[in-house]
Specification:
- Helices cover 42% and strands 15% of the residues.
- It is of the alpha/beta class and 658 residues long.
- It has three domains: 7-222, 3-Layer(aba) Sandwich (L-fuculose-1-phosphate Aldolase), CATH 3.40.225.10; 242-400, 3-Layer(aba) Sandwich (L-fuculose-1-phosphate Aldolase); 412-588 and 623-650, 3-Layer(aba) Sandwich (Rossmann fold), CATH 3.40.50.720.
- It has a seven-stranded mixed β-sheet with strand order 3-2-1-4-7-6-5. It has a seven-stranded parallel β-sheet with strand order 14-13-12-15-16-17-18, sandwiched between helices.
- Strand 9 (301-302), helix 14 (306-320) and strand 10 (337-340) form a beta-alpha-beta unit.
- Helix 6 crosses helix 15, helix 19 packs parallel to helix 20 (503-528) and helix 20 (503-528) runs parallel beside helix 21.
- The protein is elongated and about 95 Å long.
Length: 658
Amino acid sequence: MKSLWNDKEAANFSGDLGLRVYTSRLLGREPSLVLHGGGNTSVKSKETNILGQEETLLYVKGSGWDLETIDKPGFSPVRMAHLLELARLDSLSDPQMVNELKTHMTLASAPTPSVEAILHAILPFKYVDHTHADAVVTVTNSPNGLARVQEIYGDAVVIIPYVMPGFDLARECARRFAAEAGNNTIGMVLMNHGIFSFGETARESYERMIDLVSRAEDYLAAHDAWELPRPAGPAPAATSRCEAIARLRRQVCDAAGFPVIVSTHPDSQCLAFARRGDLETISQQGPATPDHVIRTKRLPMLGGDVAGYVQAYKAYFDEHAPQAKESKTMLDPAPRVVLDPELGLCTVGRTARDAAIVEDIYRHTMDIILRATALGGFHALPAREIFDVEYWDLEQAKLRKGGTPPVFSGETALVTGAASGIGRACVDSLLARGAAVIALDVNPAVTGLYARPDYLGITCDLGEETQITAALEQGVRAFGSVDMLILNAGVFPASRRIDAVATQEWRKVMAINLDANLVLMRETYPLLKLAPGGGRVVVIGSKNVPAPGPGAAAYSASKAALNQLTRVAALEWGEDNIRINTLHPIAVFDTDIWTEEVLASRARSYGLSVEDYKKKNILKTEVTSHDVAELAAEMCGPLFARTTAAQVPVDGGNERVI
């Protein structure tokens, strides 16, 4: 573990809180210290209030903020005097504690303070840092963990037996710190939870954290438990796993009661772990730290027995819920982590981002388990302790605050011709509604349109069937299946009379506009019929289907054939709860086909200005890619749940179509 402190960087941050922001971000940069909202930091600072009175405030990380990206608004200013008075109480319920923290902030717009605010307040140091460092958690989750921690740190830390976060933990830390801290104390280890460091400056507290974690790493290295073998491992099987993944995902959706993303990781690390002979022992102990349970559940599912996992989860709830202080309502019993010898690691989430967070957490968990195993065994906290955190109302509040999920949350759409024009607009409309999107285009620019976990751009020549199937496999491994299919890609050749159409050109148009769509429909059909909300297909057709024009024989014929194909599909697929509808746009000018030169030329041929030409329809309105995309997205939504085989013009009103 190396210090990332940089004097030039630090010079950009002024004051107590500014430096607190800087070193918090340094901690957040290192995933082996904190992951996705984990850990917290604070600083005690004297300020003058509106009455001219000086008071000491505790600026502590607010709930929902991530240390890697935190800024000043992410810290909640709470009056220190009140926090110290609270620490003297004999008891304080969680709702009371949250109320006291929120009502004694000096800034109403600040986030809810960390539940460990009282703990930060009672530590007699200006700066306090708290992480869930992998190395420390590894040691505390190993046999004789307490003795090992004592051996590593001596009197440099105060050791706290596991206590659930909140008021009781703050009281226990205050008691033990007062009794055991000495001149050499620079930190505190919470067994099976994490580690604290503190200091009088931001740099001192941060670098003490680095030093303390490094000592744990050195200890693991000295016991041959730090460097883990990274197997070259077998490559993922060449055979398609699309249907197997989609079936697993459907079962998980049914168990959860809502659509989910399932992200599959068949790399050598995950396959090697999932194929271990002792997997049933080492993976079924519990999470590395209780904080992870709200993301990962207590245990991963081994293999594909979703029904068995659900039954076991219900038994876990029934065993521990009666012992809770207040009544509990069972959460959904679906797994969030799946370990399978063929699929590797599968992670589950309401969104692609959630699934990615679970992946990050469990990759670190695998390393922690393997290192602890090298020390003699991985031993997590008992199920009772994990249950209390999983069903802790304060932790559940973090998940509930998201509100109603977007309409396509947990679902995946595949869009062709997605790099520009209508295709790209469809990507945007689907992302805005919460879908994960697999975007295909022959233009390599499709891969870099967005850098976000719910977007996967794949360069794909739809004229090559092998590229289509490979792209589909990649997309299903990323998100779990395909629920919606937007068939948009097409080619529009130069205008030619039938007697001038070359056979090669004709076949090229048919290959992209018709044949490729047949392949996509055929290959996605097994996935679409497994969609928990029913499969949906939207075909971007053309005004040329109902009203063809001269000079567009190949284009018009290909689109008309595709239109007929969709009508047959509607007849065949209805029994599988798959609906398929078609949009017929015309003159969508914000696409690559319509350059400024082409627009000007076409407008002149009609004796119109470019602006008037764009609105040459009955409603005198311009039709944009966004207009088409929004209707395509709505056709995948609940408003069109009882519509299939529809053909809807998006043209502002065209006399020949009418």
